[in-house]
Specification:
Length: 20
Amino acid sequence: MAHIDGRQLNNISPLQRDDT
């Protein structure tokens, strides 16, 4: 799985967001 931006993933998978 690629390192996707948390803000982008927040809408899809809030558990996988890397934004903190």
